[in-house]
Structure formats: structure tokens, C-alpha cells
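Predict the assembly for these two chains.
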Amino acid sequence: MRTSIATVSLSGSLTEKLTAASRAGFEGVEIFENDLLASPLPPREIRARCADLGLSIDLYQPVRDIEAVPADEFARNLRRARHKFALMRELGADTVLVCSSVSPAAIDDDALAAEQLGHLATLAQDFGIRVAYEALAWGRYVSTYDHAWRIVEAAGHPALGTCLDSFHILSRGSDPKGIEDIPGEKIFFLQLADAPLLAMDVLQWSRHYRCFPGQGGFDVAGLVRHVLRTGYDGPLSLEVFNDVFRQAEAGPTAVDAHRSLLVLQEAVGAGELPPPVVPTGIAFAELVTPDAEPVSALLGALGFARTARHRSKPVDLWERGEARILLNTGPAVRRDGTGLAAIGLESPDPRAAARRAEALLAPVLPRRRAPEDVPLAAVAAPDGTELFFCATGRDPEHPDWRADFAETPDEPGTPAARIDHLALVQPWHQYDEATLFHRSVLGLRAQESVDVADPYGLLRSRAVTNADGSVRIALGVGAAPADDTLHAQHIALAVEDVVAAARAFRAAGGRLLPIPANYHDDLAARYEFADGELDTYRDLGILYDRDAGGVFRHCYTRTVGRVFFELVQRDPGYRGYGAQNAPVRLAAQHAGR
Amino acid sequence: MRTSIATVSLSGSLTEKLTAASRAGFEGVEIFENDLLASPLPPREIRARCADLGLSIDLYQPVRDIEAVPADEFARNLRRARHKFALMRELGADTVLVCSSVSPAAIDDDALAAEQLGHLATLAQDFGIRVAYEALAWGRYVSTYDHAWRIVEAAGHPALGTCLDSFHILSRGSDPKGIEDIPGEKIFFLQLADAPLLAMDVLQWSRHYRCFPGQGGFDVAGLVRHVLRTGYDGPLSLEVFNDVFRQAEAGPTAVDAHRSLLVLQEAVGAGELPPPVVPTGIAFAELVTPDAEPVSALLGALGFARTARHRSKPVDLWERGEARILLNTGPAVRRDGTGLAAIGLESPDPRAAARRAEALLAPVLPRRRAPEDVPLAAVAAPDGTELFFCATGRDPEHPDWRADFAETPDEPGTPAARIDHLALVQPWHQYDEATLFHRSVLGLRAQESVDVADPYGLLRSRAVTNADGSVRIALGVGAAPADDTLHAQHIALAVEDVVAAARAFRAAGGRLLPIPANYHDDLAARYEFADGELDTYRDLGILYDRDAGGVFRHCYTRTVGRVFFELVQRDPGYRGYGAQNAPVRLAAQHAGR
């Protein structure tokens, strides 16, 4: 299906918006009137610019407060509309959005609304224009899609149809099934937006909190299925008012937007995406650092051993049981110091996984970093983390990334450990986008988002996982762009016995994050422990959580650069990540700086 | 009355919070449990720290999910409470907040709740502690203050009273008059918070959007009046959960917080503030610049003449009619280039105005900048703008600031103009605080806040004015801390004829901000104009707005540094500032960069 986006959904000047929409793969745009008014380009030049960019102008919007008014007011409204229709002819736009009146002058009279909309459509027809009438969720008298359709039907004018908007329909809790009663050729346009499920004033909700389909809580795909059953063959068009997108760069937002429509089309059976290939484990995590010594010392104290070295690059493989860390000290590493740069995901079919990622607009990374390297399928996540699709020692058809490495005499460290989860820090405006990326590209499931109080701001965190929990990635974000309170990038190692692991770490010279005694005093108030158990936790800085499925014990290393390690002992049934302990951990990290 | 603040209202570590509260003048604190748990200080040291800072610990909070549960669960809850009471004894806190249960285990049985709260109070009494039971607005069975009071009354225990919280009462729309039915000695505590009037889920509203009294939409003062009539003599204590305050620096937030309680006490007749002295005009605006030439050229083109020069400093006075601009090129000017640094406000009693400002915690500026200067009363606004209280050539008792200036041969510029309004840019987290400052310190009235779409983010703006409109200050703020889209700092000159003023400016070599033709095409669609009128506006970049009271015509100069000028022709009845044209102006400013 054709895809389109309203210019109001993207930041910048009209030219910047159009360029971003085109580059992201959209075929059309809705021109939002305010964007045109603020543009130095005359309409004919906007038309030419769109043509150059391969964009059709699918809609001009909105014309407001037209219908169901006294005759003298309607005459003034027609005069205004005539100006707009002349403008649209210059622009080469053939459909105009008229949204239901919110004017105090409006009269509660459907027959009058139909009559005046018919007059408007007659005028539009003279200009070769179609009028798409839409119910705003907060329209004065017309606020539901079926009501708007009854008026359109009563007018019975060939140049008058309806425009459906998923936000206006779903925010009111209307049943979208009734859409199927509208003939497809009378649905002139379909605008799509999702939104988080908030109990708030619908106008404010609409103006500030809309998001792209799949990022919120609405069943947008369900609505689109009803629309497609009517025979609708116009574009799927995004209209999203969002305070954050208004500030974010237009380019990445447009890519996220287009991805959301690709996923939506797949959900309604109208897409042609390669199917998802869900990762089955974490092959490795890659740390980059300009200074190998502190990270090597940390890995050594954590029981990792350096087992192999890359044949051509300054990259070492460290192993402890199934947990593998690549330590990259090459000059090409990020300038912002020590951090988590890449994740190797075990994939049942690495090439197919990469094909899906590419189809979903993930930037594909060069398959070989150097000519002699094993070709690996890899893409970049929205936060810049490189995702490698691996088939570690498993599938003779797929190259093993370890072939690039020459073994050293060392044996893997002990005792056994594996990566329980990885925590990544997202750019401020990329939280919902990152979730949609990991869900759609990797086929992971998103858990609930949780708020975490840091002493200097509120953070949010949400995990994406595969079905058996062998891949768990926690996506974290600060409360505002300037937030420097982020200590969230980390690697959590699952161990059999966290007390033993913490003791071994300390005995090997590792420094654990000290946890305030007040925290353990509170544990004593909340739970009963075996003799000495709490003293051990207190001594080692072990935190404790419990849910219906079991217990979670965890402790932290000191931070090196922007990354730290967590040691976790997870009962099989425990689902979380100790989020309720995170404020204490964050405060301790701030105190230790 | 005593003032107190909950530690959750401020950002930082517990030590930082306590220090900020003490410095701002609070006499007590509520210790929020999570702040204690995350603190490395043991309770006895927290107690000592508070004592050193002159702070009492008025409340420990909260203990949750205690009452109306099966017996075995209540036994566990009592065990937990005993731990907390022992902790409070260490801390030296004698009142604990128990909020109504939200537990799924709770039973809808007031008699059981009263019985168990009675047991709890008996235990508390052993530790010298009083229990203050509060209804959370989203409590499972107890969610209104009168219901909580009925349970407390039924329990009839001397160590059990109620805690009132203005948010929980007013967010539910409960009538606070019923508070007067509670004996004052049974109101153990009073927590105060305001909030903007949002139609949203009350839990989310409470956790993220509370603000200080006078910053939101609740009648907090009305509620406090009811409480005082009961004979309550405990502290007025602020408990504010706010995402922005969590990120803002604790020091200024604490000052804003304490100011809100001073204003509140005045509103309920319990304060001792000097009365407000409302300014009656704008004496001058002071620009600072490292480079006098561009600003002088701009002032000259705007019809200003340099009429006087400061006797000892590199400050010139420029005048056009009643509009006066000081141009300061001294080395002490701000490093961030050309900007609006100070405002002279005409005051009926400058010294009294300064006394009120000081009582409301505004930093007082040195009365003389140099020994030979006329002593002037001045304070700093929260955004750093210096406010001078002046009695220009009016009152022999008060020195005239112009005495510092030696006249030059030039006559004031022509034709007459005056300052219509000044627009100031507020730090991101200081929008509501700035409004409260200008309302309370200067006695100005706040108009509605409006959202303005900038191409790169959403701005907000709100004007504060005196009754006759001779003082108008627009306070603007970006949508996020990193926002660099702010072109809002400006000086608007009221002229008799904006067309003539714009033409004269251009003829004198001034550069007007060009406005896109699309904007004027839209004006043609919306309004009818006399022949040629619109062409004139188009030519000069004049914008047009109309409300029920009249018409507003305005245009803009190019920006110099961080400041620009606006020329406005305002019909006397027009109340606004052309906000609906602001997106077009902002886009034009971005395009011209």
C-alpha cells in the first residue's frame, strides 16, 4: 500500500520535513497548513520540490469550522474555502481535510451540516478537489466517525467523502467494526496514529502524546483491517502530534515512522516483509575502550579468561562459561570512552535475520570489517549499538565469528556464567522507537515500562526478551535530553551463587558497589531471612527482590567509563530485573563518583 | 506558621536535599523513606545533620498497606512497623504517615481498619510515636479524607490522628469544608501540593505533575483556611512529586518552594509580608552587549536617540518618547553576548517594593553599583534578570536613576513610542516558578499560558501584567532543557502607526524580518482588508491578529545577539500578543539564521 505522512509529524522547516519523508521511503505527504504558511516557498515551488523528491501531496489539511453555521457565517467560510482551493490547485493537491466544527457558532443540525458540506463539495469540484470530512474526537456536535459518515451519506455528493483517523476513533473507545458499513470509495482518506493509553483530556492527549502505530496502546492494525475490508485503496498516512518528535531530528523520526507502517502492513497481511527470525541467545557483548587495562582487570576479577585474540585487530575474546565478551581497543572505537558497542545475537538464520532488519530500514553494516574477516550479517540499532547475527559453532552453513580469532593457551574462566541481560541507554527521544525496533526487527517481546527514581531525575526502563528468556535486553532512557544521570549501560552475568561470585570477585581485587546499611535494615523489616543471610548481603552489597515466581539476588561492580557489570542469581520463575532496587543502586553510583 | 518540606520534593542525595531546605528557610522536613534507604548516613547521623541545619524531622513517610487485612498479614505488617518505629526513634521523628491501603489483600471493613490502626497506634505509643492516617486519592477502599477521619474517630486512640493532603482532597473534587468537622488536635499533619488542572489518571497526576501552592489550579489557600479554623497548629508541609523538580537543582527549587508557602500564608491571613507594590510602568530596559555598534545602529534606525551617558560607566541612555533603553557595554556584562539584562519598573514606593521582594526570597542586588551611583532598590528575578524599582522624575523623596546620567545634546527620538511589553526567556524548569515570582513579588496578574509551535519544538508563553497594561512581561520557555530554539527575548515598542514606523525603520537602514507570502495569502482568506492594505503588510512583513477587543498589527527586526525588537500597533481593547502568528515568526527567524 502507499505510505504517506503529515508534515506536522516531523520537525524542521517544510523543506527539511519533505526531504526526511522522501529519504525514509514515504511516497506521499499531507501538507499541514501551518507548515505551508511558515514556508518561504510559494505553493508551486513546494509542488515542484515534492515532485523532485518523488512525493505526491495526498492531502491538504485542515480546513476547520466550516459547517452547520448561520448563512452569513457560511458565506464567509465559503470565501475562505475558495482561497484554499485555489491554493491547492497551485499545490497540486486534490483532497482536502475538513474536520468537524469546534466553533461556538456551530448549530446542532445534521441536515444543515450535510447541506453546507454539499455546497462546499460543489465548490471543491470546480477546482477538481475532493472534500474528506472527519470527526474530531472533541468536535462540538460531531465527534464520532459514524456520525460524520451519516452526514456525508445524507449530503450524497460525489466530491464529499469521509476521512477516518485512528486516534479520533480509538481514543473515544468507538467500535471500529462499524467502519465496514461505509463503502470503501467513500473513505477518501485514512490517517493513522497510535497513543499510549492515558486517562486524560482527549484534546491534550491528541495534541501532545500521539505516536506511531505499534508504539502505543491502540489496536491500530485491527482498525486498518476493518478499513481494508471496505475496499479502501488510498494511502496509509501518519498524522502524529508529539512534543518529543517536534524536537527530534526529522531524519531518524521519518525512518521510525516508515518502519511503523511496514510493521503495520505486515500485521494486516498487506506487507511483503521477510518473516522475523527470533534470536535464541547472546553470542557475545563487545566492549570498546581506549584503555584496556581497567576493563581487563575487571574482566579478570569477574572470572573471565582471555581465550582468543582477533587475527588482525586489537580485539580480545574473554570467556567465562557461556558468557563471552569482546574487548576492542582499536582506534576506531567510539570517542566517548569505554562502553558497550555491539551485541552478538545467536540466530537460527543469520542471513534471513539481516534481510528482515534491512527491510525494516535498519542500517546494514559492512559484512566484513576487514577483507580477511569472516562475513557477518550485522545492522545498527537506533541507539547505534551494532547487532551481529551469529551462528556460534552450530551451523556448518554459516560462518562462525570465532574463526577470526586465534586461541590463546588460556581456558575459559570459571565457574560457569552466562549473560542474563544487557542494559542499553537510549537517546532521549528514542524510547518507544527502540522498543518497536527490537520488537519488529528481532521479534522480541516488550515487557512493561517501569519508572525508576534516580536522585537527579526519573528514568524509564523496559525489557525486550525472547520467549525462554535467553535473550533479555533492557532499554533505558532519562527523563529529559540533558539528563546525565545515566548509569544504566551494563552487562548482567547470571551466576549460580551470587554470594560465591561476589566473594570471588572481591578476593580477586574487584570493587563491588557499596550499598547503604539503611537498605538492608529495610530488607529486615520486609522479609525474614535465615541466620546470617542478611549480614552476608550487607557485607557484599547484595540487593534482594522477590516476586510471585521467585527470588532475585544481585550486586554491582564499580563503573568503568560508561559501563558496569551486575552479578545476578535469578530463580527460574522470577521475571523482573530488581527494578525496585534501582533507586538505591543509582544513588550509590552517584555517591561513588 | 512553621514550614516544612518532604525530601521527595527536591533533587539530589538526602544531604543535598536537607542543605537546600535549610538554606531556603524551611524549619522542618518530612523524610521520605526511599531517600533514607538510599543514603549512606545512618539514622542517627541524619538526625544530627538535621539538627545542625536547624531542621526538625516532622514526619517519616510513608508506611503503606497496613490496615484492614487478615490477621496473619496484619501480624507481618506490625512486625514491619516495629522496625520502622525503632528507626524513627533513632531518627528523632515522632510522627509517621500511614496512607490508606492499595493492597489487593485489603478488606472493605472500616471496623477492622479502625481496630488494626488502633493496635498500630498502641505499638507506636510505646516508641513515643503518633500515627497520622491519610486517605490516598486512589486508596483501595479509603480514598476520601472524611472516610479516613471516620476510621480514626472510630478507633478513638490518642496516638492515632489523620493527615490531610491538599492534592488527595482537591484532585477528587472533595469539598474541603468538611475539614472543619475534625477537631484540630486530631489533625496530626497537613501536606500541601498544588497541581495544574489536568483530566488524567489521578495516580499519574499525583506522581508526576504536582507543583507548589499557587503554581497550579487548586484553591490550596481555601483548604488551608478550613484547616486553620479547626485549631490545627502543626506545620504547613509541602509534598510535591514532580518530574521536572526531580531534575532541577535543589537549591533554587527549595527557594521557590518556600516562597510558595510565604505567599500561601499571606493569602490565609497568617503571614507577615510587606504588602505588594504593583509597578505602574516600565522605566527602562537595559541591554548588555560586548559590541555597541550593531545595537546602536538598530536603536538609531528604530528612531531612538542617545540622550545621556552614565557619569562613570560605559552605559548610554537611548530614548524615543517614553521608551527608554540603557545600552551597557561594560566589561561586567554577560559573557553570552547581546541580551536583555535588566528592567526598570516604575514603582509607587521603590523601597517598599524591594522589601517585599526580599521578604519573598528574591536576591537583593547591591544598592549602588559604584560609590557615586544613585542608590537604587533592585532584586534579581529567577531567570537572572535584574529588576530595578524606579521613581523616574516623580517623587522628590526617591532618587531618580537618571541622575547618574549626563545629558548629551541629542533630543529624544521621534515619533513617540513606549515599551508595550518585554519578553524574557526562562530556564526550562522555571516557568511556573517565574510566574509565581512575578505574581507574588510584583503583584502582577498572570494571563493564560499558550503553546507556540516552533519548527524545532513546542514553546510555552504566558504574560504577566498590571491592571492597566502599562507593565506587560511575557515569560517564555522551551519544551525541554536542551532546547536552543529560543528567539523569544525581545522588546516590543508600541507605536501609533506600525506601517509608518516600519517604513521609517527601513528607510533608516534597518532590516525587518521577512514574512513568507503564504502567510499573507492566508490573511486574505481569513479577513477582508481595504484596498492595498494587505500589500503594505506583505511588503513590510507586518503580521495581523484580531480578537473581540480589537486589532493587533506587528512586525519584527532582525535579531542581534539574543535579542530583537518588535513594533506593535495595539488597539486599546486587544488583550493578546499575536501568539497565533508566533509560529510564522519563529520559522522566519530560523530561516534567517
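The mean pLDDT of chain B is 93. The first helix of chain B runs from residue 14 to 23.
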